[in-house]
Design a protein that fits this description.
With 682 residues, the protein is of the alpha+beta class. It is built from ten helices and 39 strands.
Length: 682
């Protein structure tokens, strides 16, 4: 089927290609003297033949606007693809990686000018840097080999290896921790004693948070390195993540907690490590954790109590501040993300944080936690709003929560204003009185489009609308401009509303959360005589399938059209085919469906494939061919059932893609297919 080009743009100065013009900003840091800013970008460029290419860049810029040779070398328009920029502890050296993270380069400050980047070292073939840090004379880095799985011969399956859920590339080795002298031609040496662990558990291989890739060298004693490790490469062993301290002199590896733990941060005086630890062991996939502190001298650990912990109990640690009296972190409050602090002595924090109309750190697009040197009085952060693309803000640490000191850079500077569409954060009462917050776009439009986010322990945030939705970036601006009222409820199980809310879908996937979405349809669709359609990806795609097959039977709601990406249609078969089937006993109280007939019946009742006889809405399914999280068979079985029942269906697959396509041309196809499907059938 050919999609008419006229349907892929709107008449008010916006088309789907505009969704690729803004760049995300990450790795933000400021030099110790407060004069220089450093950060990375990720975006997309379009060639003359309209082909889209991903871009990566690094910017080193004076606070006064002074440009540098690093920014020129690492401009996103070049093929260098720079990333992971870091200031060294001397404040006069910057290091970064380029060329698919296989080469480490540096630039040094001479007077008021930074030198042209030079190569420090190049990693062996097929290896790339995962994370890096440097002091005045040594660069420390973790690296991994990303080797394609064999295509010939035989390979024994052993619970199988961790898979990158985006690209589908398997990890071929445990992450090594190495170092190299901060001079050209330096020899790489890797630490012995860490061969049986992986340094850094990369979040994208397991969930949607890249919270555990970093390690930290103690600034007072460089023989002590704090890190997150995993003991195996099995996808189901995410619960084996541990915070540890490695002593490079003795080879000792000290484990800080017996529970899943991660995000290690040294205090400025080098005497303590802050880290996060899972706060419940029965439903780890809900991803609730609290902040703990390990005292090096006494080998004791103190953790924040549930009643005194962070508001959402999903903190992303930034580091120690204000003479080690505070621990700084990002936390989600509703649809916003803010910088907050915990008292390091009492491990308590302010519970009266207001919900500002912005997101610090980019939300769920990537790990955009600021790079912060413990004890510094300045910090560089990113902020974005629904109508404002990401920008950088130079803040005093003491007042970072109210910082408004925007610093102009070349990134996102030339973007045109977004079309004027209504954006409202509102709440409604669900079937049992539970209050559900949601984002509403284009409320005056005549047709209701309900979007359900992935996760489920994620949320639709107040991020820049020009990026589209969380998970796959569905084209909300194009949809609103095409006449649809788009609502995006943060149903129970979502992050941002406290640990109890996020854990409230335990033992009940497809139950109360489904009813939360149904209630949104009733109040904002049926009650206003609006026609209704649904779209989502991953867990949101699971909800799309449930709406397709159950909404009419359970609540007499006629669904007019469905778009589901990375869909889950059968909880039963998913247990044996997903890359992380350990999540099911995590969700269902330690049980598997073969242990309990009532659980098996419940999982079938909450699976679309067993209700397909009720399906009537035209359905578009989008799926990565190599998706390890929601295997292609999940979409195939629903597609085949719909065809046999003569329900209009279209099934579009993306070769080489994992769970969520990362190739910008495939992402453009998602946008165009979605818009065309709703314009044709809704």
């Amino acid at each position: 089927m050919t999609i008419p080009a006229i349907l892929l743009s709107c008449a008010v100065g916006w088309s789907n290609v505009d969704q690729f013009k803004a760049s995300s900003i990450a790795d933000t840091s400021v030099s110790s003297d407060g004069k220089w800013m450093l950060f990375s970008t990720a975006g997309t460029r379009q060639d003359s033949d309209n082909t889209l290419f991903p871009t990566a860049g690094v910017y080193l810029q004076g606070v006064d606007g002074t440009k540098t040779a690093v920014s020129q070398f690492c401009d996103p328009s070049t093929p260098n693809q720079c990333a992971m920029p870091r200031f060294c502890s001397d404040g006069k050296t910057v290091v970064f990686v380029h060329s698919a993270a296989s080469t480490i380069a540096k630039s040094t400050l001479n007077g008021n000018s930074w030198s042209n980047p030079t190569t420090v070292t190049t990693l062996p073939k097929d290896e790339s840097v995962v994370s890096l840090q440097c002091n005045a004379d040594t660069i420390y880095f973790s690296s991994s080999s990303f080797t394609p799985a064999p295509t010939k011969g035989a390979r024994e399956i052993e619970d199988d290896i961790i898979i990158n859920v985006i690209s589908e590339a398997p990890i071929g080795s445990l992450n090594k921790l190495c170092r190299v002298q901060n001079t050209a031609g330096g020899q790489i040496s890797c630490f012995e004693g860490l061969e049986k662990v992986s340094v850094g558990a990369v979040g994208w291989y397991l969930s949607c948070w890249q919270y555990a890739t970093d390690f930290e060298v103690n600034s007072k004693d460089d023989s002590l390195i704090a890190m997150t490790t995993t003991d195996t490469l099995n996808g189901n062993d995410w619960e084996l993540m541990r915070s540890r301290i490695y002593n490079t002199k003795t080879g000792a590896l000290t484990t800080l907690s017996s529970l899943p733990s991660f995000q290690t941060k040294w205090s400025a005086d080098g005497s303590k490590v802050a880290f996060t630890e899972i706060d419940h062991t029965d439903y780890t996939w809900a991803q609730t954790w609290h902040i703990c502190v390990f005292e090096v001298a006494s080998h004791t650990v103190k953790c924040a109590a549930d009643g005194n912990s962070t508001i959402d109990q999903m903190p992303s640690l930034i580091g120690w501040s204000e003479n080690d009296s505070k621990i700084m972190f990002l936390q989600q409050i509703g649809t916003s993300v803010v910088v907050s602090k915990m008292d390091a002595a009492t491990l308590t924090c302010d519970k009266q944080v207001t919900q500002p109309p912005h997101v610090v750190g980019g939300g769920f697009r990537a790990s955009m936690i600021p790079v912060y040197e413990a004890g510094s009085d300045k910090i560089l952060i990113t902020k974005e709003t629904p109508t404002g693309a990401p920008g950088v803000y130079l803040c005093d640490v003491a007042t970072v929560d109210s910082c408004s000191n925007f610093v102009k850079t070349d990134v996102n500077a030339d973007l045109s204003p977004l079309p004027a569409i209504s954006h409202e954060i509102t709440t409604y009462k669900s079937f049992d009185g539970e209050e559900i917050e949601m984002i509403s776009l284009g409320a005056n439009n005549s047709k209701l489009l309900v979007f359900t986010h992935c996760g489920p322990a994620m949320a639709q945030l107040s991020t820049y609308m020009g990026f589209g939705t969380v998970c796959a970036g569905f084209p909300v601006i194009s949809l609103v401009l095409s006449g649809y009222h788009v609502v995006m409820p943060n149903y129970r199980g979502s992050s941002g509303y406290g640990a109890a809310f996020r854990r409230s879908d335990a033992n009940d996937w497809g139950g109360s959360d489904y009813k939360d979405i149904i209630e949104a349809m009733k109040q904002f669709g049926v009650a206003q005589n609006k026609k209704i359609a649904h779209f989502g990806w991953s867990y949101g795609g699971y909800m799309s399938s449930l709406m397709l097959t159950r909404a009419k039977a359970t609540d007499n709601i006629d669904i007019q059209a469905i778009v589901g990406g990375g869909t889950l249609n059968d909880l039963i078969s998913h247990v044996g085919t997903t890359d992380i089937n350990r999540l099911f006993p995590s969700v269902y109280g330690g049980k598997n469906f073969w242990d309990d007939k009532a659980l098996a019946a419940k999982m079938m009742d909450h699976s679309a494939i067993y209700h397909v006889i009720n399906a009537t809405a035209p359905t578009l399914m989008l799926h990565g061919v190599d998706d390890p999280r929601m295997p292609l068979s999940q979409a195939w079985q629903l597609h085949q059932a719909l065809r046999r029942r003569s329900v209009t269906t279209r099934f579009v697959v993306f070769p080489g893609s994992g769970h969520i396509p990362g190739n910008p041309n495939q992402r453009m196809t998602i946008l165009n297919e979605t818009l065309f499907w709703f314009q044709k059938h809704f």
